[in-house]
Amino acid sequence: MKYGYLIYLFICLSLFAGCDIINPEEQEAAYISIQQVNLSTDLDIQGSNSSNIKDAWIYIDDNLIGAFPLPCKIPSLKTGNHKISIGAGIQVNGSSMLRTPYIFYRFYQQENVNLEAGYVTELNPVVTYFDSITFGFKANFDDLSGNKLTSTAVSDTTVELTTDASKVFEGTGSCLARLLRDSGLVEFQMIDPVTLPKGGRNIFLELDYKTTHDLVIGLRSYYTGASTKEEILLSLRANSNWNKVYINLTKAVSTQVNAANYRIYFSAYKQAGSVPLEILLDNLKIVY
User: Fold this and answer.
1) What is the pLDDT of residue 144?
2) Cα gap 18→217, rounded to integer Å
3) What is the pLDDT confidence band of residue 147, given thresholds at 50, 70 and 90?
4) Residue 183, pLDDT above cutoff 60
5) pTM
6) Residue 87: phi, psi to the nearest 5?
7) Domain identity same for 85 and 159
8) Interatomic CA distance for residues 140 and 195, integer angstroms
9) CB atoms within 10 A of CB 163
């Protein structure tokens, strides 16, 4: 009995002594804080620096930590000096289900970032376009000598440039389409068709927009012999505030493998009794 008690006491002391092994003291984390990811551009070559970067894709020493909605503050058990890489995450076609680093933005990188346990390291990443990409179409609507969009034959109104400060997104002008009658169709497109690469080459349309009615955006593919094919790319919901969208054209263009060139078109329908129809666009770019 005596020996049994001693053995029991020894086991208990061993368990208490081993608590630090079983439940070791937790390591204090360092923190990385990012309020936003900004875009820097060469205005003459690349156009506006307008962007809609939703997420930060964070890598530490080339290892993905995760994708985090902005603004974010994330913990890291890695301390000391490390390389931090940040990808600018967008929502493809405006969908929260299609989140990815934008393929045309170069990752931000900073070497020897000192991560210190218990402290917050704030980063202010700025990304740029890759030098190798092509801008197949640009329209910032600041050149009041002309417009790069025109109404189509089926449209019940025309499209114009506006310098009204209350309607301009940035710069001196924006593109405006409005319908003064109670009901009807607004449709306009690029004046000049563009040649685009096929074979699965990544192609995106970027634009800033504000619209009182749902806005359909589509692609017209033109073939030798005057035949045309149309495809709706997506419909943007009415939005009382300016928004930016990145639209993936890759599949739509490559599917029309024998097309000679293409136009982007826009259309909206006003039902009788609905609010006055007004569409505003700015900073259109086709990049690949």
Assistant:
1) 63
2) 66
3) confident
4) yes
5) 0.88
6) -95, 145
7) no
8) 20
9) 14
